[in-house]
Amino acid sequence: MCSVNPGHCTLIKFIFLLLIIIHLSLNTAESVWPLPQIFIPSPERYQLKPQSFSFGYRRYLDTKHSCSVLDAAFKRYFSILFPGYSYANLITFSVATQLLFLNSYKLSVFAGQASLNAETVWGSLRGLETFSQLVYQDDLGSYYINKTEIEDYPQFNYRGILLDTSRHYLPVQAILKTLDAMAYSKFNVFHWHLVDDPSFPYQSHKFPDLSNKGAFHPVTHVYTQSDVRRVISYARMRGIRVLPEFDSPGHTKSWGKGQSELLTPCYRGATPSGTFGPVNPTLPSTYQFMLSLLKEVASVFPDPYIHLGGDEVDFSCWRSNPYIRAFMHKMGFGLDFSKLEAFYIEKIVNITSILRKTSIVWQDVFDYHERRRFLSVVEVWKQGCYLCEVRRVVKAGLRVILASPWYLDQPGPTHNWARYYNVWPLAFKGTEKQKSLVIGGEVCMWGEYVDATNLSPRLWPRASAAAERLWSNERQTSCVERAFPRLQEFRCKLLRRGIQAEPLYVGHCKHEYQTV
Amino acid sequence: MCSVNPGHCTLIKFIFLLLIIIHLSLNTAESVWPLPQIFIPSPERYQLKPQSFSFGYRRYLDTKHSCSVLDAAFKRYFSILFPGYSYANLITFSVATQLLFLNSYKLSVFAGQASLNAETVWGSLRGLETFSQLVYQDDLGSYYINKTEIEDYPQFNYRGILLDTSRHYLPVQAILKTLDAMAYSKFNVFHWHLVDDPSFPYQSHKFPDLSNKGAFHPVTHVYTQSDVRRVISYARMRGIRVLPEFDSPGHTKSWGKGQSELLTPCYRGATPSGTFGPVNPTLPSTYQFMLSLLKEVASVFPDPYIHLGGDEVDFSCWRSNPYIRAFMHKMGFGLDFSKLEAFYIEKIVNITSILRKTSIVWQDVFDYHERRRFLSVVEVWKQGCYLCEVRRVVKAGLRVILASPWYLDQPGPTHNWARYYNVWPLAFKGTEKQKSLVIGGEVCMWGEYVDATNLSPRLWPRASAAAERLWSNERQTSCVERAFPRLQEFRCKLLRRGIQAEPLYVGHCKHEYQTV
């Protein structure tokens, strides 16, 4: 297995050589999804022989001879390219790498050879994915690839999918399968909404009671430290960052079961009602706990970012509690509970900074607070004029992740995919500098009505529509009708790779999904 | 394997003995879905030991000693009850049976024994399903069943699910899996919408070109005679009839590829446009072909019914064709093309009668024609005031199958299930005799956006809501809130049995669905 902690990658100029048996003839090229920035196909084609095909390194500026991430990717893509054949040419050598945003690569298929150039291993992974989509079989089963020149890089650096493992528990296998499919669409961030009101499946080593008492089941419905490591490692091997979210002060009901005095006791008149509200922001013990928990999170999750949530805080419980009201009075907050929320969030953001992590928050934190300088990245999720909101955030000099148009947990007919395709994150009035603050977008798969039974068909191929928007040049991908057959073909490729992607419309794939 | 052709079942009074080790204690009873007509649970419980559990026959009025349908059911339900244990007590003995509508049974669990009484094997199968839902495990893994008295029978005799294998091809395995899940919800008719405009996957032995040229692929996307036999046999073993639909004269584009001169050539002005419309009702060859095809269908599918379709016939192509217009003139139909349609349908219904099969048609045939006496069963599918339509049909003395409220191919949030539950097929003004003509209802899963990737989560557990409506007493099942926890529990049972049933709302099952 691959080492989990990302280190520094010393590979500066990465080049592969793909050995291809030349067998020249003419044919239509395969399509690629998401569309590369520069894509010059040609009808000239070369035959690939699985028996004599191999991946290799041509030249690199490091003294080490290979990279574990890419060696594993060679193996993976060989199986994808040639199901049933085995790849012997494996060198295992560990090279620690850093999760960079850089995903650019150049791919050239010419004269019976393919060469892939990339600045980073992550760019190389994107290029391998593109390469794998270029290979096709004729009716007799022979493999071909057309002469092709590609220069490619993503439009946005943050291309995320949120999975919610609190409203329903997702078995680790379902998460890994999603990571596979994400890599095929060139997504690079898995936003793990680990915990929420209904359950706390993250098994903390510092606070084991959080999942012992707060998970749906303390043994079968938890993510152990080993599960989390496995997810992070699996994602990293596919060029995907894992962004953990520990949403507070709202959305924390399940936290209260294993951590007494964390949540605010709600009052009915002068006596506690027995129910609990958001995290209690008035107690020093709250911040000691949060520091301790986030310290653990910061060490378990190597990503430089932590999502702190901060959405949908219900003030009614705080308002009912006389101790909270007394604190408000002492602090001079008047009756404005959003000031209390800001007080809490600022402290949590500061804790996160001390842990050398950058915080991401939901737009609520930005919307309801006057002091915004302490924020870094804001995720816009509310419906309505979301571009107005994007504009407000970038005008405040903060970075933005856009999620509003990509709430895919809502079921919808698949032909609806165009709704997720025709999204223009930069279509607002602003300077180039402001637009550069829009770092990307995210597909959200909330869990009220979603678990492992319907996750895949609800995500794919609709999420792939968002993926092309986030990767490709919007001028080249503005026509839904032109995109449709390419997305259909990509969906068939997903089926071929075992991803339960639902159909876009009437029709068929050469290889249909096989029910178990 | 079981014999495909149904014969006559001489078993009149069927009784089982289930041996249970007594181990008395008190506990809450398990729920059953759909709710039995009379259900008297008790907190008294008995322990079941997989090692010493067996099914057996107590008494029957035939000289034969067992029934293959039930022997296979014993084996199946033993695995469902006790996963991981193997059932040795198998007697193989073939008894041919007739597909009767009778599904009633009595089940009594008392003093460490369970006895199941039924008039037919099909009633016995329903009782076994109920029995299997009564058994539960405690936290230590021991099996229990509570003292229970049940008398049960279905409210409606026709409880169907339509699958559409033309708009997308469904691999046989996906159909079999659906049949499994149907049996768990006590559905008893699989309405197989085999062919339609997009493809003709039925491999006819008389007309092999229909699928050779009309299927999406002549080898990988067809149902061979052996596939069809397998589906029928698999369904029969689970007490499910297979109702084949060969929809005409519309919805037949794919037929034309392998059967020239069957479809009407459309004209642009005085010349054929190159496109084709509905079946050509003016040529004698059409009826020779239809007789020959339906003769094959009648012999391949043992069910006494054939669905003839007859919906959504577009007249524009008929109208464009001068030969059709000349025929209309000759027949004195004027400009009323619905008369031409009626002319065609009457002939096809007559052919079906000659083949000793009863025909079912979509409501269009009833709606647009004055002469209705030649019809038998009408399936109501249009939205709007569907009960008004049901009333019109029964007033004409015809039998009705109601499908309108159960078009589940449309995706919707699962909490929507109540919409399919709160359907009252008999809530129209009419005599008892008229109401008795409503023979049941049907869940339709059209294939525009559905294939094996999303079939299961889109069907289950929403179809189960319809199943309870069609099986149970409507007075006992009119409260959505009371049904909800029982349906949630049933959905967990479906997961446990490997059915990819999507969640109803936030929560968890003891055994979640495992991604492969």
TrEMBL record, chains A, B:
Keyword set, alphabetical order: Disulfide bond, Glycoprotein, Glycosidase, Hydrolase, Lipid metabolism, Lysosome, Signal, Zymogen
Source organism, top-level taxon: Eukaryota
Pfam families associated with the record: Glyco_hydro_20, Glycohydro_20b2
GO cellular component: lysosome; membrane
GO BP field: carbohydrate metabolic process; ganglioside catabolic process; glycosaminoglycan metabolic process
Matching CDD domains: GH20_HexA_HexB-like (cd06562)
Active site (catalytic residues): 312
EC number(s) given by UniProt: 3.2.1.52
Domain Glycoside hydrolase family 20 catalytic per the UniProt entry, residue ranges: 156-473
Name of the protein this chain belongs to: Beta-hexosaminidase
InterPro entries reported in the protein's UniProt record: Beta_hexosaminidase_sua/sub, GH, Glyco_hydro_20_cat, Hex-like_dom2, HEX_eukaryotic_N
Main location: other
Signal peptide: 1-31
Record's subcellular location: Lysosome
Organism field: Xiphophorus couchianus (Monterrey platyfish)
Function comment: Hydrolyzes the non-reducing end N-acetyl-D-hexosamine and/or sulfated N-acetyl-D-hexosamine of glycoconjugates, such as the oligosaccharide moieties from proteins and neutral glycolipids, or from certain mucopolysaccharides. The isozyme S is as active as the isozyme A on the anionic bis-sulfated glycans, the chondroitin-6-sulfate trisaccharide (C6S-3), and the dermatan sulfate pentasaccharide, and the sulfated glycosphingolipid SM2. The isozyme B does not hydrolyze each of these substrates, however hydrolyzes efficiently neutral oligosaccharide.
Annotated catalysed reactions: a ganglioside GM2 (d18:1(4E)) + H2O = a ganglioside GM3 (d18:1(4E)) + N-acetyl-beta-D-galactosamine; N-acetyl-beta-D-6-sulfogalactosaminyl-(1->4)-alpha-L-iduronyl-(1->3)-N-acetyl-D-6-sulfogalactosamine + H2O = alpha-L-iduronyl-(1->3)-N-acetyl-D-6-sulfogalactosamine + N-acetyl-D-6-sulfogalactosamine; a ganglioside GM2 + H2O = a ganglioside GM3 + N-acetyl-beta-D-galactosamine; Hydrolysis of terminal non-reducing N-acetyl-D-hexosamine residues in N-acetyl-beta-D-hexosaminides
Annotated Beta-hexosaminidase eukaryotic type N-terminal domain residues: 103-134
Gene Ontology terms for molecular function: beta-N-acetylhexosaminidase activity
Family: Belongs to the glycosyl hydrolase 20 family.
Assembly behavior: There are 3 beta-hexosaminidase isozymes: isozyme A (hexosaminidase A) is a heterodimer composed of one subunit alpha and one subunit beta (chain A and B); isozyme B (hexosaminidase B) is a homodimer of two beta subunits (two chains A and B); isozyme S (hexosaminidase S) is a homodimer of two alpha subunits. The composition of the dimer (isozyme A versus isozyme S) has a significant effect on the substrate specificity of the alpha subunit active site.
EC class name: hydrolase
